């Protein structure tokens, strides 16, 4: 009889018979088999010791894994939609391509976890520790990252549209994908940069709208450029340079985290957007001074 025990008290939380072909496999494989069985019977695995379990492709939808120890577990391609992982330890876990849509990961430890291409849409990551986590290409649409620790995390290609980063720690996080895309594109409209800066400072950004008093990146630049009030995403041309309005671009996805009234003092995305606009202004001024010298 294979047993799953509490990581704190060693109390048996679930036990099952193993198939003959499973019984001769590694402990990681046997543990993964037992977890699948437990979840299929709606067993409560709160506080379970599941470290290093092989759960590749497992269906753990709606599982209760509160405070469970999943450190080093292989959850590649696993379905954890709406799972309760509050306070769980997922340090060094492999969650590549896993589905965590709507999962509750509040206070979870995801240090160094591999979340490349994982679906974290609508996930609750409040207070989660994602230090040095790999979030390359992850879907974080509408995720709640309030007070999360993202220090040193790799967010290259991640989709952060409408994510909440209030109080999040982004120190040394890899945001180059967003920063470089934004700076390169807004420099195509150099005369509008101060207007963009003013809009960000004044809380006049709405990342989900092309027009209005508050608008997305493209809409704000279009308004500064004097385009008609009904602007709806056409390319903006200046001196042969073409700024392309692309809602799927890293720059616009970044701006989707900024709502009307959000300012650099109240919104992380707004604060960093302002920093990047200031960088673009400095680059523009250097280019102009160099042109005058020549």
Brief account:
The protein contains seven helices and four strands. The chain is mainly alpha-helical.
Describe this structure in words.
This protein is mainly alpha-helical and 294 residues long. The chain folds into two domains: 1-140, E3 ubiquitin-protein ligase SopA (Pectate Lyase C-like), CATH 2.160.20; 178-293, no CATH class. It has seven helices and four strands. The protein has a two-stranded antiparallel ribbon. A two-stranded antiparallel sheet has the order 3-4. A hairpin with a 6-residue loop joins strand 1 and strand 2. Helix 3 (176-186) packs across helix 7 (268-293), helix 4 (193-201) packs across helix 5 and helix 4 runs antiparallel to helix 7. The longest helix has 26 residues, at 268-293. The termini are far apart. The model has no long low-confidence stretch (mean pLDDT 94).
